[in-house]
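Exercise 7. Predict the joint structure of the components listed below.
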Amino acid sequence: MHLIFLLLLLTGSVLGSSSNSSSDLSGMLMHHVSDQKEWAILPAVPPIPIHDLKIGSLTIPLTMHAIMLVIAAAILIIVFCAAFSGNRTTPGKLGLAIEPVVLFIRDALIYPVMGEKLGQKWLPFFLTLFFFLLTSNIMGLIPLFGTSTGNLSVTTALALIILVAIVAQGMQSNGIFGFFKNMVPAGLPLPIGIFLILIEIPGLFIKCSVLAIRLFANMIAGHFVILSLLLLIFIIHPAASVISVPLALFINLLELLVAVIQALVFTILSAIFISMFSSHH
Amino acid sequence: MEQAVSGINISYFGAVISLAIIVAGAAFGISTLGSKALDSMARQPDIKNDARILMILGAALIEGVAFFAAVACLILIMTK
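Solution:
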């Protein structure tokens, strides 16, 4: 009983926190999903405006998602420094909680895909990537914060990092021309080889952009469905909250699963791409 | 011929029908993947851990294609 009342209060506060009282419902939905220049914390408190960062003559425009990135990084630094700090021979409680996840990523995702040598070199990068994505995805489900990976710019930036990593590791393993020669099987006549390389290069760009779009669309779709279900309360009748709020609860739980799975899939696909383009014949 | 009903854009119809077909295709693919994975796990229980990760990976890849199409249809609906 308390749970139902709490849920109704939370949903009312989430939907009432828009400062511009527009009766435009799709505008309200886009306002809750897209990036804003102000950070709405509590329903009754006016939202905090976010100013641009001025360093000398340069201006870095900051929005809510940019601040969420900094908060996710701060959470990661604090948690991991507290868990694995000092000269420990046995892990502490926080270390015992994080260690199975780290070992799972190392033994089940990275080492079988990339091998021992390459895996040891790239392991810190993939651990950082996985925990950053996990933190950012789960932060979107907490009412105070926003989803920074629900912004196409953030996921495109991550995919660009993976693209640079693929090309750099490929050119380091095989040489600059060997990177392109590695894309086609050996022993082909030259025209067919050039044709295949011309097809594989856009394939590389498409793989990285599909990484970005997959993560973005999964995060946005969850929020869209929850907000659409809750906006049904405004469209139809306030009594529809009896149906909408439990459905929104279940979709929130599904979104938690999707958040973890999408972080895993991004990491494992990046590892597969890096090892695919840098393997020796 | 005059338009009897004003304000209904026929491009909504095309976007929603295509979205339904694409999502149905993705659901069909993921269900086939899940059933084959469970069959193989029942046949050889030693593979359980590897097959579980591969199943989730395959489902996420197929879902990525479906979400790509969903985002494209959503853009079509929102901007028309």
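Discussion. Helices of chain B lie at 10-43, 48-79.
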